TrEMBL record:
Species of provenance: Candidatus Methylomirabilis limnetica
GO MF terms, alphabetically ordered: purine nucleosidase activity
Superkingdom as given in the UniProt entry: Bacteria
Ranges for domain Inosine/uridine-preferring nucleoside hydrolase: 6-316
Designated name of the protein: Nucleoside hydrolase
SUPFAM superfamilies from the UniProt entry: Nucleoside hydrolase
Length: 328
């Protein structure tokens, strides 16, 4: 089988960085471009972080890295640097080599001049039915691409979105997941676009957890730049999660979205009609998937494939095996 051609739209972000590593370590995927969006961190930092992950993997020049939306369509950006660290990657500047130089030097390659939404539409329009777009951050770039280039965007093979919470609690408010909370207006536009969308909500991503024990038992024994990076970028977050939840475990939200592009059999999905709350109140960003047995005339046609089950053990085995592979 030829590799699946993908674009990854991302707001790195520690789990985004792990997702990028998984994508590049997997021969099932060919990453055509990385597009960045404001979310966990401001968009310039997201682009710098994506480039840093490419440098760690020795993928330079690698695929184009484009800079996208500086903020949500309407809401105010509230980055998540308390969770991901000021740099968005777990405060990597702390790490030095034996000679005292930064273990992770500033990336030298500049981002693409073309804005992310235009690059997304150009690549998808140039290869009808071939490109899978994997969205790991707020959907601002995707919404802008649909608004600016609907004909090209209609050529997309599939859009895989990490976001939402169907019956699981939210992670940024009791009801809402971070990506959709950050830009609910973009999510609403995307979810009503009629494009083929697969949703990877917290209901499944919170069942695939990278633990400090797994780092100790598996990752620590493999000596590579990538495994060193995985240990360094997660070290601070294990402490954050330990204090927050009492358990040193990081949900692999974004890596699971990439995992679904690698092997669809890792999850089971069902067609649902899902709406997004765009108001400013306590329900902002909530995904409403009415699954009550409604009267026929009240039922609305499904607009998403929603993944509600995951083979967590098989995904974790895939994730660990791939990140421990020797870099190309
Ligand atoms: O809610 C989890 C999602 O929000 C992940 O994509 C994480 O990186 C943040 O962007
Ligand atoms: Ca993300």
């Amino acid at each position: 089988m030829p590799p699946t051609r993908v674009i990854i739209d991302t707001d790195p972000g520690i789990d985004d960085a792990l997702a990028l590593i998984l994508a590049f370590a997997s021969p099932e995927l060919s990453v055509e471009a990385i597009t960045t969006v404001a979310g966990n961190v401001p968009v310039a930092q997201a682009a710098r972080n994506a480039r840093m992950v490419l440098d760690v993997m020795g993928r330079s020049p690698g695929p184009p890295v484009a800079v996208g939306a500086r903020g949500p369509l309407k809401k105010k950006l509230r980055p998540a640097q308390d969770y991901h660290g000021e740099d968005g990657l777990g405060e990597l500047s702390r790490f030095k080599t034996g000679e005292g130089i930064p273990r992770y030097p500033e990336p030298q390659q500049l981002p693409e001049p073309q804005p992310a939404p235009a690059l997304i539409a150009e690549i998808i329009g140039s290869a009808p039915g071939e490109i899978v777009l994997i969205c790991l951050g707020p959907l601002t770039n995707l919404a802008m691409a649909i608004q600016a280039a609907p004909t090209q965007m209609a050529q997309v093979k599939e859009i895989i979105v990490m976001g939402g919470a169907i019956q699981a609690p939210g992670n940024v408010t009791p009801g809402a997941e971070f990506n959709l909370y950050t830009d609910p207006d973009a999510a609403k536009l995307v979810f009503t676009s009629g494009l083929p969308i697969t949703l990877i909500p917290l209901d499944v991503t919170q069942r695939v957890m990278l633990t400090a024990e797994l780092i100790d038992a598996v990752v620590r024994h493999i000596d590579s730049r990538v495994t060193q990076f995985v240990r360094d970028t997660t070290e601070r977050l294990f402490g954050v999660e330990q204090r927050r939840t009492g358990y040193a475990a990081i949900p692999l939200h974004d890596p699971l979205a990439v995992g679904v592009a690698i092997d669809r059999s890792l999850v089971s999905s069902r067609p649902l009609h899902v709406e997004v709350e765009t108001g400013d109140g306590p329900a902002q960003g909530m995904t409403i998937a009415d699954r009550r047995p409604l009267k026929e005339e009240w039922k609305k046609p499904p607009n998403l494939q929603v993944c509600m089950e995951v083979d967590a053990g098989r995904f974790m085995a895939l994730f660990l095996e791939r990140i421990c592979r020797p870099t190309a």
